[in-house]
Design a protein that fits this description.
homodimer; about 120 residues; mainly beta; Ubiquitin-like (UB roll); 4-stranded mixed beta sheet; globular; zinc (chains A, B); hydrolase (chains A, B); cytoplasm (chains A, B)
């Protein structure tokens, strides 16, 4: 079953009860998943207008431009949306590590035999 | 600020109030983001045990192995988890289109000038 939201040209994000959609950022050059975060309508608009990934921080309860303090911004090369418009995929050019731990990607650990193995 | 959940070797997913974490699947060969979905503890365990991506369907309220009816399973090459353990990244080998619309990826539309442009 499809709908105009699923196939049409109209940007019509399906925000959840908290007014959010999920956003995933990948390195446009390598395809590596860098981070997952959330966006409200304002964050999505700011991202598209500025060309720099901007999210809604659920913990801080405010708009949050990635890298606003660290300088590690994510420059948006391309923004895509999924079929039911509740998730956005940003292909980005990262300016520095995406993770607050200093790792290039937040996904720096592999799940193996029920444990986590960090990248070298 | 970091914690053992963020840096340690223990798999300790941070499920939300509904018992879910977010999962993103990318094509292991191309890096393309194929789909986003959710997992509860049972879905994560089933994914790791079977090697095939299994999610929790919020709309159907049940465990859902991707491709269980279509045959378009996502064979897991590698599973990773992010710093705060509320998101999983599956690098997969897709057996057929990931999207129910027949598109290879659910993210078949680009956001451009406030509108959506479908891939050719």
């Amino acid at each position: 079953m499809t709908s105009s939201r699923e196939t049409g040209p109209t940007l019509d994000p399906k925000y959840d009860a908290a007014g959010l959609i999920t956003a995933v950022a990948t390195d446009a050059a390598t395809g590596e998943v860098l981070m997952l975060a959330h966006m409200n309508a304002e964050a999505l608009a700011a991202t598209m207008a500025s060309g720099e990934a901007t999210f809604w921080s659920r913990s801080r309860g405010r708009l949050w431009k990635k890298g606003e303090t660290s300088g590690h911004v994510l420059r948006v090369v391309e923004a895509r949306i999924d079929c039911d418009q509740d998730a956005v995929w940003l292909r980005v050019e990262p300016h520095g590590p995406a993770c607050h731990t200093g790792a290039r990607s937040c996904f720096y650990r592999r799940i193996k035999d029920g444990r986590l193995v960090a990248d070298e």
